[in-house]
Structure formats: C-alpha cells, structure tokens
Write a structure and sequence with these properties.
With about 120 residues, this protein is mostly helical. The chain has 4 helices and no strands.
C-alpha cells in the first residue's frame, strides 16, 4: 500500500503560505512607519512587535523542520528585520524584498513539487 503524502503536502503548503502572509504584513509595518502613518513612535513599535512575533512564529515552523526553503526564509526574515533598523526607506529595499520573496516562493514550490 502506497503512502498518502497529501496531508504532509497540505501542511507544508499552509506553513509556507502563512509565512508569506506574515512577512508581507511585517514589511508593510516598515512601509507605514516610513510614510509616517502611525500616530506615535509607541504605536509604530507596538505594530512592529506584533508583526515581528507573528513572522517569527511562522518562520520557526520552517526552521524547526529544517528541510525545504529554510535558507530562503531566513534571508527574507533578515531583509525585513533590517528594515526595522532604519528610520528612512533605503533605496532599493522593496526590490530586494521582492527578490528574496520570489526566491522563497520558488524554493517552496520546488519543495512542494518534490512530494510524491
């Protein structure tokens, strides 16, 4: 009898999608902060902390497993975390974010397609 890998495939797909959603949201926090959309530094910090916590939780699922797009996920997280350290939008930051996001998506698709 053959192993049904569908539940594992679906779990990985959900993990990768949740991670992408979290990283997109965390990056938007920096974008809003750079635009001055938050009424105070405290609000911006609270939004950053909440987004950071969510992304870290989703990343931990990928990191813990240790297979698939771990390196690509770590690079995307590092890019976003660097955004938090500057008060003005660095030139090229969105291009770099987009490049790293696409690298993660490609690696995740490759990993998902390897499921039997």
């Amino acid at each position: 009898m053959a192993q049904d890998w569908t539940p594992i495939y679906l779990a990985h797909r959900q993990t990768y999608a949740a991670f992408l959603t979290a990283t997109d949201a965390e990056a938007r926090v920096s974008w809003h902060r750079w635009r001055g959309d938050y009424p105070s530094k405290e609000t911006a910090l609270a939004e950053t902390d909440a987004a950071y916590t969510r992304t870290q939780g989703e990343f931990n699922m990928i990191d813990l497993e240790g297979i698939g797009p771990v390196a690509e996920a770590r690079a995307l997280v590092d890019c976003i975390r660097a955004m938090h350290g500057v008060d003005v939008e660095p030139p090229g930051t969105w291009e770099e974010f987009t490049r790293l996001r696409e690298a993660f998506v490609t690696a995740a698709r490759d990993h998902l397609s390897a499921h039997p």
